[in-house]
Amino acid sequence: MGSSGPMRDSGAVSTPSTEDRDARVPAADDPAGPPARTAGNPADAVVGLLQALTIESQRFAEVFADAHRLHPTDLSALAHISKAMQGGGALTAGELSRVLVLSTSATTALVDRLQRAGHVERVPDPLDRRRVRVQMTPSAQQLARAFFSRLGLRVRDLLLSYPERDLEFLQDVLGKVVGVARSAADEARADAPGPS
């Protein structure tokens, strides 16, 4: 095992010093690292870092999309389907249409395309056989898990280098940020013209 993981002593995670932790994080002026901190409101700096995280996450996902000839909307659909499955459910085509803000015909074409590629399958709703739900195939789940775990494990390793109280605070803040983002998206969707 390398030294990048958290040190364990008597079953407790020991927290590396700030210098050790910062040595594993890209420098602020590194082109691959986070944007440099600027003078001003710290909240603005955090918003900038969240925007940078979104951009870098999208860039990472685009590698997967390009490798598997997926349109950005296809990738977004798979992300929503995967999230629903992780929660123990599966989306109907109508639900997928709403979250993607697509017309019924465009959603049908998208699901058809993903099904032909072997990424999704239509399955009967166990509670209502008249309804059909869309779920990822086992092979697509395995493929996505193998690719995206590369980033997830690195982020998890980094987070484990922080004290538990810091992670609890971060969880609280990010949970509220997600709520604000979801609310803003819902408001924007309500104000936008409907799909044709």
UniProtKB/TrEMBL annotation:
Residues 46-179 form the HTH marR-type domain. Residues 25-39 have a biased composition (Low complexity). It holds the Pfam family MarR_2. Gene3D superfamilies: Winged helix-like DNA-binding domain superfamily/Winged helix DNA-binding domain. InterPro entries: HTH_MarR-typ, MarR/SlyA-like, WH-like_DNA-bd_sf, WH_DNA-bd_sf. Residues 1-42 are annotated as: Disordered. It comes from the Bacteria. Coiled coil: none annotated. This is MarR family transcriptional regulator.
